[in-house]
């Protein structure tokens, strides 16, 4: 093995050895607490579950931010929480990462209870917050060395591991620069490197590219996808970007604190079974009424256009032009997207949902028409 590869691998092995020794000690307590309970592993988890949430609830006074959610994440998955701002994504991550207590329910991460085995959970996770938490008056190297000290990374492993993770995100040549001189994208990449430094089993990414330009967002995802090839790691991320959710192995759609669907991106899109049609007309409100009267189609305004779903949209459009009484200025037909999935389950698009409470009437109407699908 080339020397350049041997050092980082030895460092990774040393870190994981320390984690394993700590894990074995913690498992004694964890096994005792689980003894006698029911489920696949004595606690209801499937054998491959790295993260498990059961009946998770979080209330802030009268506000119920998380409303009894259940899900599992298996080893090696990239699992995404997709939903608008305020849906409960960050609150869920805080509970999983021991930064907030659940009001009810239970969360297990890497086999440990996030409420009763906080130290064990923290040893096994990395966390990249939505807002930067770097010390900008320190250099990149100083930030990482401080993190290594906090997490008990063996001294002999710090240098090779630090180079490995900084090379991974393309920042080794800037390790001596003050973080205050970094761009937003560089700071985000450094935070990912910091989250990986102690070789966690699970990496949590809370809105990893929020506020970044499209090119930088694309670069960040290139680093994340490369990371999956290099490290034995499970990734749990939150996002409200549809294109980011496409990178996930599975997605949980969360809305108003409840999970409304969980599956692979392709399976979720296939479940819709209809094409999305958007038209702009001389009188959009009248067009919505006419679609209901003439075709029995429920439509609504989304992204500035009259939007509805039909099977075989390309075949329906000629009939629409022939029979519709209102002049149509433009029409577009698209295959089901994740935005269509979100709209199907919640009654609105993520963009509309983030527009505020003004869409609540439309959402309630959708739920009534769909028979309370939620």
Topology (elements, then pairings):
Blueprint: H1 3-34, E1 49-60, E2 63-74, E3 78-82, H2 89-96, E4 104-109, E5 112-113, H3 118-123, E6 125-128, H4 140-150, H5 155-168, H6 184-196, E7 202-206, H7 214-230, E8 234-239, H8 242-245, E9 250-255, E10 258-263, H9 265-272, E11 275-281, H10 284-295, E12 300-302, E13 305-310, H11 313-323, E14 328-334, H12 338-346, H13 350-353, H14 360-369
Parallel strand pairs: 3-8, 3-9, 6-7, 7-8
Antiparallel strand pairs: 1-2, 1-4, 4-5, 9-10, 11-13, 11-14, 12-13
Helix pairs in contact: 1-5, 5-6, 9-12
Task: Tell me what you see in this structure.
The protein is of the alpha/beta class and 374 residues long. Helix content is 43%, strand content 23%. The strands form three sheets. The chain has a six-stranded mixed sheet, with helices on both faces. α1 packs across α5 and α9 crosses α12. The longest helix is centred in the N-terminal third of the chain and has 32 residues. The C terminus is likely disordered.
